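To: structure subgroup
Subject: Chain for Friday's discussion

All,

I'm putting the inputs and outputs inline so they're searchable in the archive.
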Amino acid sequence: MYSENTVSNLQYLNNYHSVALRSGQNGALDSRIRNAFISSSDPKLATDWLIGSLKKEFASVTVYDNLDALMRARPDVVVI
């Protein structure tokens, strides 16, 4: 579940990633720098890492779209 602050951060990261993607069209940047900028600006990088880390510890990991879906599922463990 994302807090309001997390949602704001994700919006910022999406905008930042858009800038990085546009920089890919700039031939003046060294390709290694350009590629690092693009790959490291992916807004899903942190959440994908967290999900991957949790999958190493738990048999299954489910991401719920909203609190209602979470409450209906009644999971054994909740990570917020």
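Points worth raising on Friday:
The two ends are 5 Å apart (CA to CA).
DSSP finds four helices and no strands in the chain.

D.
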